[in-house]
């Protein structure tokens, strides 16, 4: 099995979600199923069927998170430096629009573009790997080719 790169923050967030599912959500849904079962005929009991469906989702998510966390390769960006690699917080400027963007390159299960967390497998992250401050990068995106200049690289 292939290891899954992850930052300490991403690992902690997935661990917290798993703990919540096991200690809060799972017991709550078991209680909801028991309550719905007491309402009588299970064939026409919408509350029971809804609770069982939610239980299936919760159990599936628990198994998924356990699998991800068992394969996690936690990489602490604070111990890194130099050219852009996993965990780097990179500030870029779009060479066409002069718009500045800051992203941190993270694993696929913690990526969230709205929060500035860029999936390591994304076209932009793949183009940035190995680049230094001042380098120019061309990235093929679904919207066409974009050119960026690397303004700064931080590891925190």
UniProtKB/TrEMBL annotation:
Top-level lineage group: Bacteria
UniProt xrefs under InterPro entries: GreA/GreB_C_sf, TF_GreA/GreB_CS, Tscrpt_elong_fac_GreA, Tscrpt_elong_fac_GreA/B, Tscrpt_elong_fac_GreA/B_C, Tscrpt_elong_fac_GreA/B_fam, Tscrpt_elong_fac_GreA/B_N, Tscrpt_elong_fac_GreA/B_N_sf
Domain Transcription elongation factor GreA/GreB N-terminal: 4-74
Keywords: DNA-binding, Transcription, Transcription regulation
Start and end residues of each Transcription elongation factor GreA/GreB C-terminal domain: 81-155
Ranges that cross the membrane: none
Functional summary from the UniProt entry: Necessary for efficient RNA polymerase transcription elongation past template-encoded arresting sites. The arresting sites in DNA have the property of trapping a certain fraction of elongating RNA polymerases that pass through, resulting in locked ternary complexes. Cleavage of the nascent transcript by cleavage factors such as GreA or GreB allows the resumption of elongation from the new 3'terminus. GreA releases sequences of 2 to 3 nucleotides.
Family of this protein: Belongs to the GreA/GreB family.
PANTHER family: TRANSCRIPTION ELONGATION FACTOR GREA
Protein name, as recorded: Transcription elongation factor GreA
Species for this entry: Ruegeria atlantica
